[in-house]
Every structure is written in structure tokens, then in C-alpha cells.
Amino acid sequence: MTATEQKALAFLEQDALESIDMQEPLRRGFARVLYVGKDGVQLDVHGTIMQRAANEQAADRLVRRLQKAPKLFTAHKLWDKAAFEKYFCGADTFGGLSCNPCRFAVYTSKKPLPVSPVFSIRQLTLHYAPAVNQQYHLFNDSPYIEKLVRAGVFYGAFVGEELAGFIGKHAEGALGMLEVYPKFRRQGVGIALEADAVNRSLAKGQVPFGDVILGNDASFALQRSMGFSIPTAEHYWLMTEPKK
């Protein structure tokens, strides 16, 4: 890790778990530091801009450094969100903005979780990419799903040879895209998939974490039941659309 990356990590670690999605890409070596100072950090993580500013004035300064509105922007404070909306929502090239307020779920223990032997959990091949894209309920993005399957970060739980559910890992390293097919729900498939994903992360020396959209009470309950810590602070995924 470079001195710049270490400086950025030191700033973010003041927030403990509230900027885990910025800390882990730095630790894992795929975050590019766009700015670091006493007033904040701004990262590029596979094209997603992530920002944590110390105050409103710093948030404005950091956002103004961007040449154009990124497709994805993660604001870790309300003033980061407000600055982004202020400087980009009125642009001639801007078509729209959607916002997903979330909270993190972070597995802080080093202890592996038990995985039910009832299910066979294995890495998914490209053969399953269309099925994953069809079943996943939050978005429809075949190229993104296929890219992640190719990267080997999607795993499925099988009952015999039938796919019962799946889980993936987003580009920034967050566990997610957990889905269980209706006929297999309430049978422990989701717990088995997430426990297996946690254990794989721990084996690599990583801190397992995920995003939970506000209002998804079932997911919050699942994370708590598995020993995840859920900080109270919210963060915001801002997704931009080009003007048509």
C-alpha cells in the first residue's frame, strides 16, 4: 500500500464501520485515490466514485474536482449527497438521478460460520448467468451479471442439480445479490449461501460486508441473526442517467 493509500485509509478508519466500502477496496488493492486530505477522501473504485468529506465545505470542494457526473456515486454523508446533487443535477447532459439509501452490514468476527451440509454450494459458470439476471430483483443488467460470473464471484446453492439460490460479490467487494428461488425459501438456503460467502472472504483475510437498502427488514434481520454489525449511519448510492 502506498503512502497516499495509507493516509486515505487512516482518515476512513476514524469512521470505524461507516466507510467500510471505501476501506476494503484500499486494503484489497483496487481503489484509486483521487483525493486525500484532512477534510476528506475521494476514491475511484472500478468507475464508482466514493466520497467521505469531513464537512459541507469539503464536500463541495471534492465534488467540484470531478470532470463529469459518474454513473455511480456513493455519498457517505448527507453533505456529500447534497453537493453531488447541487453540482450535477442541473447539468445539460444530466437526465435523471435515483438514490438508494443504505446501511452497512459488517461481519467483524474472525470466526468462520457453520454452513449447512444439506446444500451443495459451488461456483457458478456462464451457463447460469441468464438465470441469475432473470431472478435478481433489484436490477436487470446482463453485462454486469455476466462480468461478475466471469470473475468467479457468483456461487449457487444446489439441491441435487437444481439451483436453489445464489449470492455474488459486487465490484467494490460487497457481498450481495442474494436470491433464493420461491420453492426453496424458508429452508436455510440464504443463510448457507451467506455463511459460505463470509467464510471465503475470511480465508482471504478480507472483512465481509454488504449494503442493505433501507426498508429491507428481512435482510436486516438475516444479517443480525448471523452476527453482522449494522452501524446506524446511512450512506447513499446515487445512480445517474444521461440526458436523452
Automatic annotation (TrEMBL):
Matches recorded under InterPro entries: Acyl_CoA_acyltransferase, GCN5-like_dom, GNAT_dom
GO molecular function: acyltransferase activity, transferring groups other than amino-acyl groups
Domain of life: Bacteria
Listed Pfam families: FR47
Segments forming domain N-acetyltransferase: 119-244
Protein name, entry field: N-acetyltransferase domain-containing protein
Organism: Caproicibacterium lactatifermentans
